[in-house]
Amino acid sequence: MNILLIEDEYLASEKLEAQLLRYDPRIRVLDTIDSIRNAVRWFENNPAPDLAFLDIHLSDGNSFEIFQKVEVKCPIIFTTAYDEYAVKAFKVNSIDYLLKPISNEDLAAAMEKFKRLRQSQPAPPALDMHQIMALLNRNNQPETPHYKNRFLVKSGQKIRSISTEEIAYFYAEDKIVFLITTTGQRFITDYTLDTLQELLDPEQFSRLNRQFIAHIHSIDEIHPYLKGRLKVYVKPATDKEIIISNERAHAFKEWLGK
Q1: Residue 213 contacts by C-beta under 8 Å, 6 or more apart in sequence?
Q2: Which pTM was predicted?
Q3: Which domains does the chain have, with CATH numbers?
Q4: Would you say 236 and 215 are in contact if contact means Cβ atoms under 8 Å apart?
């Protein structure tokens, strides 16, 4: 079975691929795509896979934009960190949806569902984008998004509560995500960057690259870099180089200028 992963969080895609191979070692992951732009290009230039796993929020926008730009001829399993994010749309228009962090049990159930549907209905059902967008709009209108504003962290034998205003940035290293405060304190958090991207207010926090999510007040300097990229310096300073890709650079500058 050939599967395509569309996921911009490296750790999440690596974990999902390992889970799929554990479920069935015969599965072949064709590619991992990290943006709308690259997904459109992939579908334009490659035969349809048997199945695609699609993260709803990608580095350059909402992944539903993919279906508006190119015909997708394969079944879809959506992945999301929000259980309130237009769940009806996913149920109606896809094989299944999986909440992050994805458990082995939920993944296996989704794969078994896909197999049953493929046996009874060889041609994948077409995604009804009008219905999806209508449900998204209807679900989003009555409620204002509720973003996380405090994080519990362990400090020695104690547990501390840190407000988002105290957070300078998050960064991932060796499969561990660290929370860095404005005073330079470092704490381990149980969230992946992909999940944090869903939980944090996008007006205050921005995903810089696969390693960093930063608060707007922590951005110290921005320098032009090679091939349209940006080099970012944060405070408190870090010895890690922070490079924003050409694809993310425009959205990042718009975020800073709001």
Answers
A1: 169, 170, 171, 193, 196, 197, 200, 205, 206, 207
A2: 0.54
A3: 2-140 (3.40.50.2300), 150-256 (2.40.50.1020)
A4: no
